[in-house]
Design brief:
about 140 residues; mainly alpha; two-stranded antiparallel sheet; 6 helices; 2 strands
């Protein structure tokens, strides 16, 4: 593994570990509740030793998760770290979450279809090869 690959793997692990730690510490992360705008400032106040880049990557991972987007679709309030209301989820926010989920599900369906088509094509190829082997094989 190259140094760049090792660094990338370590960063990914750090981000996952940070996200897991945030979920253990704060119910809003654990429940995938809509987060307050600027919640990163609250995080830095509560945990001053956090790296800005790690927090940014962890927040992106968290807020792009399917579970978070589903919560955003139906939620009315954003929440602070302590669970207190911090403003409302706008219709625009809900619409954005809905669009993100539709795109994600559409891509997953396309990938599933492509993989099924490839499996079907491979099965047909194997069948043809067996037929040819039976026809021309030595007896």
């Amino acid at each position: 593994m190259t140094t760049a690959e090792t660094a990338t793997t370590e960063k990914t692990t750090d981000v996952r570990a940070l996200l897991k730690d945030l979920q253990e510490r704060f119910a809003v992360f654990r429940n995938h509740s809509p987060l307050a705008i600027g919640i990163d400032k609250q995080l830095f106040a509560a945990l001053p030793d956090l790296s800005r880049k790690s927090v940014r990557l962890a927040m992106r991972s968290h807020t792009m998760s399917t579970r978070y987007l589903k919560e955003m679709e139906k939620a009315a309030q954003r929440l602070n770290l302590d669970g207190t209301p911090a403003g409302e989820v706008t219709d625009e926010n809900r619409q954005h979450a809905t669009e993100q989920l539709k795109e994600r599900f559409k891509k997953q369906a396309e990938q599933r279809k492509a993989s099924e088509a490839a499996a079907k094509a491979e099965a047909m190829k194997q069948k043809k090869l067996l037929e040819l082997a039976e026809k021309f094989g030595r007896k």
